[in-house]
């Protein structure tokens, strides 16, 4: 007979929430948590931030004017149009899908706005609503065909890319261009429009509002989590995050004020990012998007209406494609055939991926659109200063995109090996 009957069972190691360790260990806890995330493949925005610093340093060494206020103003203004398209694409990529129609939808929406407001004299705001609604409806149609009929998203949106581009060309007519007056929405998003008319106080007001919003929202979340007796961020971490944001925000305001101030289109872009970030991180709808992107079958079993989530996400993508089209048309003061330039689509996708949104779904932030566009537009501006051809820009951007995907793939592999994916 075996004598192991009374042998004590091996002790089971109890899992400890790493956020509790951070709170208990203080600063050393943050270091341990950072190392844990790196080992587990949770790189976040770290690679793109390092890459952006390297890009800025390299171009600054080649041309001293790269770090000038006027150049940063240029980058801030021209990244908004395609960056707006990229916001919608982040939602789609979180599902692990793709939307190839955003370039054509943006061009079509700009054409609808131009035809209604210029050719037919419709009120500018009504024309704007019509253009944005068109983008959202088109996106919902794509989502319906994909989610309900079962046609792959790649095929559906590729068909949309071709079809909506043709409709745009038909609307613009033989000339292919409709010039837009510098009034209303076009002026609001145009190059001569700055927050509070470029008053130096405007940039600092925006910076102060952003910092205060982070501080109060973080303290509010801390209070709610403390009341619920679940792990929460310690006050020291909240203060550190606030200080870092304050340095970045007020530093950016100072630099932009050295030239003309904060472009209005950048203000709306940042507002859109904040709203979308809130939706994704603080609402049940946002959590459902991450759940569907992470595991469709598990989401279905959890009671999530997967088809509804897919349709709504493509509607959001269409809406931001339309909004981006209006911003791009305001940038060039016209709606023309270039509005559906395939390069806009490619750059919008590249921005989301370079900024840290995974192509495999379930992981990313809307701030990827901002970070990715900063990288792409910094490359554009730097190469323009050096007198390089656009072909060089495409090759370098392609290399950066490939590097981002490789990092994402390696990160996922590391997470799987550590049991986190």
Automatic annotation (TrEMBL):
Cellular compartment(s): Cell membrane
Chief place of localization: membrane
Ranges annotated as spanning the membrane: 43-62, 74-95, 100-118, 124-146, 153-173, 193-217, 238-256, 262-280, 311-332, 344-362, 369-386, 392-410
Classification via InterPro entries: ABC_transp_permease
Membrane topology qualifier: Multi-pass membrane protein
One matching Pfam family: BPD_transp_2
Alphabetical keyword list: Cell inner membrane, Cell membrane, Membrane, Sugar transport, Transmembrane, Transmembrane helix, Transport
The protein's role, per its UniProt record: Part of the binding-protein-dependent transport system for D-xylose. Probably responsible for the translocation of the substrate across the membrane.
Protein's recorded name: Xylose transport system permease protein XylH
Source organism: Streptacidiphilus cavernicola
Taxon lineage: Bacteria, Bacillati, Actinomycetota, Actinomycetes, Kitasatosporales
């Amino acid at each position: 007979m075996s004598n192991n009957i009374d042998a004590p069972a091996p002790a089971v190691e109890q899992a400890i929430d790493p956020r509790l360790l951070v709170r208990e260990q203080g600063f050393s806890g943050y270091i341990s948590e950072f190392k844990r995330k790196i080992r587990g493949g949770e790189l976040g925005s770290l690679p793109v931030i390092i890459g952006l610093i390297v890009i800025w340093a390299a171009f600054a060494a080649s041309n001293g004017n790269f770090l000038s206020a006027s150049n940063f103003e240029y980058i801030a203004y021209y990244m908004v149009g395609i960056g707006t398209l990229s916001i919608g694409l982040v939602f789609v990529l979180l599902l692990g899908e793709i939307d190839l129609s955003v370039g054509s939808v943006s061009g079509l929406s700009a054409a609808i706005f131009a035809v209604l407001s210029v050719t037919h004299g419709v009120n500018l705001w009504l024309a704007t609503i019509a253009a944005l609604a068109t983008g959202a409806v088109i996106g919902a149609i794509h989502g319906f065909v994909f989610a309900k009929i079962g046609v792959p998203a790649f095929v559906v949106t590729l068909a949309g890319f071709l079809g909506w581009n043709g409709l745009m060309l038909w609307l613009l007519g033989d000339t292919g261009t409709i010039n837009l007056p510098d009034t209303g929405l076009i002026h609001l998003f145009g190059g001569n429009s700055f927050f509070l008319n470029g008053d130096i106080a405007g940039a600092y007001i925006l910076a102060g509002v952003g910092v205060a919003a982070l501080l109060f929202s973080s303290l509010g979340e801390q209070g709610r989590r403390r009341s619920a007796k679940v792990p929460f961020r310690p006050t020291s971490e909240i203060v550190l995050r606030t200080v870092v944001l304050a340095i970045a925000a007020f530093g950016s305001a100072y630099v932009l004020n050295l030239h003309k101030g904060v472009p209005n289109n950048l203000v709306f872009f940042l507002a859109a990012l904040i709203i979308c970030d809130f939706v994704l991180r603080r609402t049940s709808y946002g959590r459902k998007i991450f759940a569907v992107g992470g595991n469709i079958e598990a989401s279905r079993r959890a009671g999530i209406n997967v088809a509804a989530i897919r349709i709504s996400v493509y509607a959001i993508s269409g809406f931001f494609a339309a909004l981006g089209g209006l911003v791009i048309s305001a940038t060039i003061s016209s709606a023309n055939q270039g509005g559906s330039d395939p390069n806009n689509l490619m750059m919008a996708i590249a921005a989301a991926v370079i900024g840290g949104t995974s192509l495999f779904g379930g992981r990313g932030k809307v701030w990827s659109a901002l970070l990715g566009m900063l990288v792409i537009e910094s490359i554009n501006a730097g190469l323009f200063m050096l007198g390089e051809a656009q072909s060089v820009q495409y090759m370098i951007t392609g290399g950066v995109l490939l590097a981002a995907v490789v990092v994402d793939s390696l990160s996922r592999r590391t997470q799987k090996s550590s049991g986190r994916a």
